[in-house]
């Protein structure tokens, strides 16, 4: 067997998103197990499981599972293992792809169909009575059908994660994942609706046509500025709530995290100087919600630099942002805007914030570097310079994750039979998330709760329900009953 080196490379920041299992054929030397684990560590990976799945007098069959930081790193780990004498990597399985085989969601019946009697009630002729009742009392459709617990996850595939415009079919795994999160965290039945067009009117009309079967519409991964127009038109035309998670879900969680981060530095939202990098869908929604929640000094940076209403070259979307922000009339670059600022919020692009710029902010500073998968600044470097740091990554504290918001938001919207989404709801949802972190728990490394926090969705849902005027209760019609 190859020798074990004296020093082992410090493991990189790895993630289950790049988790692989190697099927290895090796000799029976007792040292092989330790040598495999050391070789993974030397290459910067982390071994999470090592199992002997078969044994022969002259050969062991071993499954070695480990995590890496990215696809290239995964290959490096495999190559490193293969350098061991007497070891052959027979097959490599990517655990993420294995999870996706056949898709991640399915449809299950809530009722048993065991005999003719069950069939007669669930389907014809019994179902006809229910349909007739709903024809006469359409307000009861949410009570007697899946509409009361269903959400359409709608995309055109034009802005998928950090991948860009990859189209509706390639976007389907992401929409399936969203549906799985709805079910896991709020027991909502969500359906991926991937539309093969980027035309605003066609998307709007398509969603209008399918809306009768759903209690809410979740717009997802639609590029700006189309997403703004699509959401506005659908909210105007539909009598069910329309929620663009990339905008409003992100804004809710950012506001919640920022409120708690400001508690750590003993500063109120109206007193904080905030710089937002990125004036797209997420950035615009964050800015609007911050202002609605009481922020005053907010400046936005994008490709033209600091957005200033005096700049006549701005696009309509940027001009709208500039009119609402930058009360100091700042001009120049992102670095210029950060001078003395309390807060940096990035929803833009990787590596646009030099670590040393953080030193030029206020004495106690907050950095939210939320670009995915690669943040605006190296998170480790940021933690050495800022008082509070948050990111979109799961391998560091304070992950800003939309799943903290959207399941509970829709649970509340569906339970309250809401017809729209209001700014008050978004602020109350943020307050609810922030409140989960108690004074005893709060510290710079814990400003936002885990997505697995018990009753998180119920807490957010209650905040939404409390915003909706209560309608008089009605009994379900029993048409044809004796």
From TrEMBL:
It holds the Pfam family malic. Keywords: Metal-binding, Oxidoreductase. InterPro entries: Aminoacid_DH-like_N_sf, Malate_Decarboxylase, Malic_N_dom, Malic_N_dom_sf, Malic_NAD-bd, Malic_NAD-bd_bact_type, Malic_OxRdtase, NAD(P)-bd_dom_sf. The keyword Magnesium does not apply. Residues 102-235 form the Malic enzyme N-terminal domain. SUPFAM superfamilies: Aminoacid dehydrogenase-like, N-terminal domain (SSF53223), NAD(P)-binding Rossmann-fold domains (SSF51735). It comes from the Bacteria. Residues 247-469 form the Malic enzyme NAD-binding domain. Belongs to the malic enzymes family. PANTHER family: NADP-DEPENDENT MALIC ENZYME (PTHR43237). This is NAD-dependent malic enzyme.
